[in-house]
């Protein structure tokens, strides 16, 4: 079955960096829309960044553009989220997600994917990121 296992969360001071990892299994890694989402206490889950693993196209929320980078390693079946210049408002539980168990076209993965959580059928358990000021 599909499994997504996140790691790399932690507590750092503002201005610091963290790299989150999402190791995927149970499906063919390429040709999927994968994303990082986050949810702060009392807030709705929001899209942070998505990547189409069939070609590497990436899309970011305005709040993280220029600070976060999503990338993939097809050998390790892993998607990363490099987070730099972290701010207290980045504090949240971060979740990795993939759209379907079968391959999907690149057109299905775009900026709008950041706001369409229903398009992602599989989620990891999350990893906590806490940024102190």
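Sequence proposed for the structure above (133 residues):
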């Amino acid at each position: 079955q599909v499994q997504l296992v996140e790691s790399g969360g932690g507590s750092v001071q503002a201005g610091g960096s963290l790299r989150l990892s999402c190791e995927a299994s149970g499906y063919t890694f390429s040709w999927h829309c994968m994303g990082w989402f986050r949810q702060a206490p009392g807030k709705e889950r929001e899209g942070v960044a998505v990547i189409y693993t069939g070609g590497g196209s990436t899309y970011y929320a305005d709040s993280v553009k220029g600070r976060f980078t999503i990338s993939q390693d097809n050998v390790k079946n892993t998607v990363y989220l490099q987070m730099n210049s972290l701010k207290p408002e980045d504090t949240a539980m971060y979740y990795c997600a993939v759209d379907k168990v079968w391959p999907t076209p690149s057109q299905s993965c775009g900026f709008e994917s950041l706001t369409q959580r229903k398009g992602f059928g599989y989620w990891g358990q999350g990893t906590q990121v806490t940024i102190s000021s």
